[in-house]
Design goal:
Layout: E1 3-9, H1 13-24, E2 32-37, H2 44-54, E3 59-63, H3 69-80, E4 85-89, E5 94-95, H4 99-109, E6 115-123, E7 129-130, E8 133-134, H5 138-144, H6 151-157, E9 168-170, H7 174-177, H8 188-198, E10 202-213, E11 224-225, H9 229-239, H10 248-271, H11 276-300, H12 302-315, H13 320-334
Parallel strand pairs: 1-2, 1-4, 2-3, 6-10
Antiparallel strand pairs: 4-9, 5-10, 6-7, 6-9, 8-11
Helix pairs in contact: 1-2, 6-8, 9-10, 10-11, 10-13, 11-12
Length: 335
């Protein structure tokens, strides 16, 4: 099995060496490291050339002619990989020494899985580990509480739980996921997770196989939370989309999440091609869940339901019908 790494860089000189060393020091060696640099202006290219000179048959460095930004840069890097398994890599993280070995072993033992992600450690700018809960903990939290779930519903109706820095894909998935759609506040990792989970070929390992760095200059963050019972409870309530437990806060959160999910899925319907059936179905399901939740909320607490409706109209929150009308207008304009 040939192993590729798709690494995207942009002014990442400060942390790049730690990541490159962690890839080179894997117990199961990779066969190629495809690097696409997005017109760095710091010492990133100097570092890459240094490592390439020391490993001439391993690195292939591509310098973009224009700035592609993260999503399209990863699209380019993935398309250039020739391995049977392609590991996505950010420029500022660190892999544990056995990450590649564990992933490849899992792929070999589970032929139906085409995309693999994992949990990870939180580190800061000085590579110090911080004990935090993360969005990657959600599946294990739900299992602990005997809450049934599936990855596709979590990702499509609530929020993404797979981070690109942890993802590896089988080569056969490339044609299924490329090109990546471009919509506001949407990243390639979520697209990969949606498509693969829809096909029941996605898995998120609870083992922590990389160190995810948090710092001021990172493009995407927001995956870590304070390590407390309150936060854990909040994560469980947020992702328990078919919840049976009724509280005022949980109703508010769920309605808000469903509004955001409708907008995101509508944007994907407009921007993507070949997968319209997925997002059309999602929109119907999200709308159904939204009004079912409102009905339960009204029965649970009529007065609070009434007051929240008034507040939402004033502050333009959770206005599902308005969101739907705007989305329909945008789709008609595209057609």
């Amino acid at each position: 099995m040939k192993i590729s790494v798709a690494l995207c860089t942009y002014n990442g000189g400060r942390f790049l060496k730690e990541q490159l060393d962690s890839i080179l020091n894997q117990t199961l060696k990779v066969d190629e490291i495809i690097v696409c640099d997005d017109i760095s202006t710091d010492n990133t290219l100097t570092i890459l050339e240094e490592y390439s000179n020391k490993n001439p048959n391993l690195f292939k460095i591509y310098k973009n002619e224009k700035n592609l930004r993260s999503v399209k840069n990863f699209e380019k890097a993935i398309s250039l990989c020739r391995g049977d398994v392609i590991f996505l890599s950010d420029q500022d993280d660190i892999w544990i020494p056995k990450k590649v070995e564990y992933y490849v072993q899992y792929f070999n033992e589970n032929n139906e899985i085409k995309v693999l992600a994992s949990n990870g450690f939180c580190i800061d700018e000085n590579s110090i580990i911080h004990e935090k809960y993360s969005v990657w903990d959600v599946p294990s939290f739900l299992l602990e509480n005997n809450i049934k779930f599936d990855y596709y519903s979590l990702i499509s109706y609530v929020s993404n739980i797979a981070t690109g820095a942890s993802i590896a894909i089988r080569k056969e998935m490339v044609a299924r996921i490329l090109p990546f759609p471009i919509i506001p506040n949407f990243h390639h990792d979520e697209w990969i997770a949606i498509i693969s989970s829809k096909e029941n070929s996605f898995e998120l390992l609870n083992g922590k196989y990389f160190y995810y760095r948090t710092h001021l200059n990172q493009q995407v963050g927001g995956v870590f939370y304070n390590n407390s019972k309150k936060v854990k409870k909040s994560l469980i309530e947020t992702f328990n989309i078919y919840q049976e437990k009724n509280t005022y806060i949980s109703f508010k959160r769920k309605l808000k999440k469903l509004c955001h999910a409708y907008i995101r899925n509508h944007n994907l319907l407009v921007a993507s091609s070949g997968y319209n059936y997925i997002f059309e179905t999602n929109l119907v399901q999200i709308e159904k869940l939204f009004f079912e939740t409102k009905s339960k909320f009204k029965k649970y607490s009529p007065i609070r339901y009434f007051l929240l409706n008034i507040s939402d109209v004033i502050f333009n929150k959770r206005q599902f019908q308005k969101i739907k009308e705007i989305s329909k207008l945008n789709l008609n304009n595209k057609i």
